[in-house]
Specification:
Number of domains: 2
Number of helices: 16
Bound molecules: zinc ion
Radius of gyration: 22 Å
CATH architecture of the largest domain: 3-Layer(aba) Sandwich
CATH class of the largest domain: Alpha Beta
Structural class: alpha/beta
Strand content: 15-25%
Oligomer: single chain
Helix content: 25-40%
Strand order of the largest sheet: 7-6-5-10-1-11-21-2-22
Number of strands: 24
CATH superfamily of the largest domain: Alkaline Phosphatase, subunit A
Distance between the termini: 30 Å
Length: 468
């Protein structure tokens, strides 16, 4: 059976339950609805990568939007090239099946596959975002995501002009659906995936307002427009959920106070506040261009933290991770685990590959800005209002799907989708098929030996070459 995965970034199970009567298309999935456990950290880059690969971050190698490059001693942005394990569309290509993939995070640069990829979050502006390139002519006017609007960070716009931000988010949602349908119409396909990201942004910026409902409603309408056109097995997934932020933990302030972090010079004014908003009006164009490249998080640390001299620093708010020198790792883990806020210990540290990753209690968020002020504080007016929680949603609708209300993990999505497509499960996958099928008959195979023969593969490759 053809299968379509619809991603609603950050869709929160409690909100879906609360609003289900007003979301008629998502309601069709409600018979088979459960929770989807995210990765640690519950961040979009590792979680979506686990969803599309079926393996945990330790195996696919992506922990955040950023990584610390020890050779150049600088923070860099990751790309699809960092994914060490094939994604669902690579596996399908290998057996001659076609995929249409729109706006999945960390798919830039888009890979050449059987089908089409329109890359998602982390695509730099003015770079090619479609593969094969000729598909671009179907996407004239496609709105990419930028982190800023009118040269002002979106969170400042959200504070002063939420209606404007909402119009842009609505436009992005419509364009994801339009592009997806346009490609499904014009290319043959077995698997389709589209991710709506406006839900993540609206919950970060405008949590606890009616705007959040408006975005859920809008996404529900667009899902309806896809479903009325194509018969397939449908899955709705979110990479994590959301909660309201009560307190921010300024992790780099803590590491500075405990003398693990060395600051550069006397720059003591980097802060997200009124002064910062004002400052943005007068920034030189060069700096604005930096913002456009999603580098705000990097730029705000590069000029303040001495990476060479520091023994430890927080990589980014989204990673909730600390880069630490070996000799202080244990001390840092102890510091984090024993950190108290009103007799509550809100953080738990875990060592993971090169990082110390923090598991956070609900209600708290980590801020990576070093401003030499308080370590713990209530969110200011320009801070995020909502933060990622550990559980997203998993829903299914279609043939052979039964009533279900349970809990699965992000790594279970790929095997479940493969089972719905009557395909065996690759041996290297960490997840397992969800118990949502009326008839369950799981087979596992070594993917490299599965499907089309080497001879057929050679013929396909030569045809691809000829058409280039
Ligand atoms: Zn996300």
């Amino acid at each position: 059976m053809k299968s379509i995965v619809i991603g609603i970034d950050g869709a929160e199970p409690k909100l879906i339950e609360k609003w289900i009567d007003d979301l008629p298309n998502i309601q069709k999935f409600y018979g088979c609805f459960g929770k989807l456990e995210s990765t640690l950290p519950p961040s979009s880059a590792p979680a979506w990568t686990s969803i599309v690969t079926g393996v945990n971050p330790e195996k696919h190698g992506i922990f955040d939007f950023f990584y610390f490059d020890r050779e150049t001693m600088s923070i860099k942005t990751i790309s699809s090239r960092f994914r060490k394990v094939p994604a669902i569309w690579n596996l399908l290509s290998r057996i001659g099946r076609n995929s249409i993939v729109v706006n999945v995070p960390v798919t830039y640069p888009p890979e050449r596959i059987n089908g089409v990829i329109v890359s998602g979050l982390l695509t730099p502006p003015n770079e090619n975002f479609v593969e094969p390139k000729e598909a671009k002519q179907l996407l004239k006017g496609y709105k990419m995501e930028h982190l800023i609007i009118d040269d002002l960070p979106i969170r400042i716009s959200a504070r002063y002009n939420p209606e404007k931000v909402m119009n842009i988010l609505r436009e992005w949602i419509e364009w994801r659906r339009k592009a997806f349908i346009m490609l499904l119409k014009n290319y043959s396909w077995d698997f389709g995936m589209v991710v709506f990201r406006a839900s993540d942004l609206v919950q970060h910026f405008l949590w606890d307002s009616d705007y959040v409902f408006q975005i859920y409603k809008k996404i529900d309408e667009e899902i309806g427009k896809i479903m009325e056109l194509y018969k397939a097995n449908y899955f709705i997934v979110s990479d994590h959920g959301f909660y309201g932020i009560k307190k921010n933990i300024f992790l780099n302030n803590l590491l500075y106070e405990k003398k693990y972090l060395e600051a550069i010079g006397r720059i003591r004014t980097i802060d997200i506040g009124k002064r910062f908003a004002k400052l943005l009006y007068y920034l030189p164009k060069k700096f604005i261009r930096l913002f456009r490249k999603h580098l705000f998080s990097i730029a705000s640390k590069e000029n303040v933290i001495d990476f060479k001299k520091s023994k430890a620093f927080c990589l980014s708010s989204s990673s909730r991770a600390i880069v630490a020198k070996k000799e202080v790792k244990n001390e840092i883990i102890e510091l984090i685990n024993n950190f108290e806020d009103n007799n509550i210990k809100p953080m738990k540290a875990t060592e993971m590959n090169d990082y110390i990753v923090i598991d956070l209690m609900e209600g708290y968020a980590i801020v990576d800005v070093l401003n030499f002020r308080k370590i713990i504080d209530k969110p200011g007016e320009f801070h995020f209002k909502g933060e990622h929680s550990k559980y997203g949603i998993f829903m299914a609708y279609g043939k052979n799907i039964k009533e279900w209300n349970g809990e699965i993990k992000v790594v279970d999505v790929l095997p479940t989708v493969f089972h719905s497509m009557n395909l065996p499960i690759p041996l290297h996958v960490d997840g397992k098929v969800a118990e949502i099928f009326k008839k369950l008959n799981v087979k596992k195979v070594d993917w490299n030996k599965y499907g089309i023969s080497e001879k057929e593969l050679k013929i396909i490759k030569s045809i691809v070459k000829l058409s280039q």
